[in-house]
């Protein structure tokens, strides 16, 4: 059965972890597995990597709790921190480390009756301007956090790059400088724990940013954070389905909703069990390719909720049951990103529950 399958090659993920270790030999590794491990299956990927990485990074406490419930004992950092309605007790009960990015979180920790300590990752805003303490308030807030009895010392420090995928941007060096300035400004060095600022693009392109800990996400799965695929990474995901019908089609006849495409010649059309209900994007340009038995053919007409039509050509020998690959080896998701204008990050995370994950080792 291979209808709308997310095939995940575990050995590719292991290879990518080993490659990142080689690129950042002096750094510990947070494997970022938020958003269901970028659709690779959070539990499956955590089970695979639990003894191969130093930490897991997630965005939501519920993701971390799921991992604990599945028996994962690796340290877990909630990179988005706890939320206003989260129960801080869960951090202790499930042994979850948390980013601390706002004054209200320090207030909550200060007034918490907890007896056990929480491991905190002080989040500094060095220029992303999304989450984190502003530089003018950061030092005061860092010391305030350090004075909370429920917060374990030393305190780790994190920040995040806005533009590390732009290799000629000055922003990354600027952010790194502000990061270092902040760390230098803390007089009591015994309060400073591990420092981390690099995700995939920082780790791969800005080696001076690796520091004690790197936090790769997309590259673990073999996908480049830049525009072009990286030869040393192995893509882990093959997103595929199969033909459910092969039909003769007459020249001049349209296909699908709104008749947006008409065949210029007699041809054979393949109907694939795949649609935007599985997470394949609906709005794609004409000629976006798929692989049918390893051969590139174009998608024609609108993508429907459950089906996609491809133009197999008049000489096609394909038959129902034949495999159709939407991205994977020989058709990198980076290339589909170029066709669709949708980043690889979004293409893979938008896959839906109907698409089933199958693990393979090869
Ligand atoms: C998502 C995320 C990462 C991983 O980013 P990639 O670009 O996928 O490597 C690292 N750190 C933080 C804080 C994140 O939110």
Automatic annotation (TrEMBL):
The modification N6-(pyridoxal phosphate)lysine is found at residue 34. The keyword DNA-binding does not apply. It catalyses: L-alanine = D-alanine. It holds the Pfam family Ala_racemase_C. Pathway: Amino-acid biosynthesis; D-alanine biosynthesis; D-alanine from L-alanine: step 1/1. One of its GO terms (cellular component) is cytosol. Keywords: Isomerase, Pyridoxal phosphate. Its cofactor is pyridoxal 5'-phosphate. Substrate binds at residues 130, 305. Residues 236-360 form the Alanine racemase C-terminal domain. The active site is at 34 (proton acceptor), 257 (proton acceptor). Its EC number is 5.1.1.1. GO terms for molecular function: alanine racemase activity; pyridoxal phosphate binding. It is an enzyme of class 5 (isomerase). GO terms for biological process: D-alanine biosynthetic process. Belongs to the alanine racemase family. Catalyzes the interconversion of L-alanine and D-alanine. May also act on other amino acids. NCBIfam families: alr. This is Alanine racemase. It comes from Gilliamella apicola.
């Amino acid at each position: 059965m291979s209808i709308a399958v997310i095939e995940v090659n575990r050995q590719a993920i292991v290879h990518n972890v080993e490659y990142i270790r080689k690129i950042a030999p002096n750094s510990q590794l947070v494997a970022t597995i938020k958003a269901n491990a970028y659709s690779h299956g959070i539990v499956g990927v955590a089970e695979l990597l639990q003894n191969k990485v130093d930490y897991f990074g997630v965005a939501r406490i519920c993701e971390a709790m799921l991992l604990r419930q599945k028996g994962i004992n690796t340290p877990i950092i909630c990179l988005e921190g706890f939320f206003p309605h989260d129960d801080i007790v869960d951090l202790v009960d499930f042994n979850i480390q948390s980013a601390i990015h706002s004054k209200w979180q320090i207030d909550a920790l200060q007034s918490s009756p907890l007896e056990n300590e929480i491991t905190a990752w002080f989040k500094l805003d060095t220029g992303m301007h999304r989450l984190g303490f502003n530089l003018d308030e950061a030092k005061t807030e860092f010391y305030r956090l350090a004075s909370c009895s429920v917060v374990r010392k030393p305190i780790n420090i994190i920040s995040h790059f806005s533009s590390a995928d732009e290799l000629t941007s000055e922003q990354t060096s600027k952010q790194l400088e502000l990061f270092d300035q902040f760390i230098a400004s803390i007089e009591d060095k015994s309060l400073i724990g591990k420092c981390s600022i690099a995700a995939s693009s920082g780790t791969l392109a800005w080696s001076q940013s690796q520091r004690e800990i790197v936090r790769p996400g997309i590259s673990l799965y073999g996908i480049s954070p830049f525009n072009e695929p990286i030869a040393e990474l192995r893509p882990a995901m093959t997103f595929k389905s199969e033909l459910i019908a092969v039909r003769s089609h007459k020249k001049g006849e349209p296909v699908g909703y709104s008749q947006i495409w008409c065949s210029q010649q007699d041809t054979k059309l393949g109907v694939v069990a795949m649609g935007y209900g599985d997470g394949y994007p609906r709005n794609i340009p004409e000629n976006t390719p798929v692989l049918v038995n390893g051969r590139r053919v174009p998608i024609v007409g609108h993508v429907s909720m459950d089906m996609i039509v491809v133009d197999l050509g008049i000489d096609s020998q394909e038959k129902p049951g034949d495999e159709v690959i939407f991205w994977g080896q020989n058709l990198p998701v980076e290339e589909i990103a170029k066709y669709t204008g949708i980043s690889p990050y979004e293409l893979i995370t938008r896959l839906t529950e109907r698409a089933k994950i199958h693990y393979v080792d090869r």
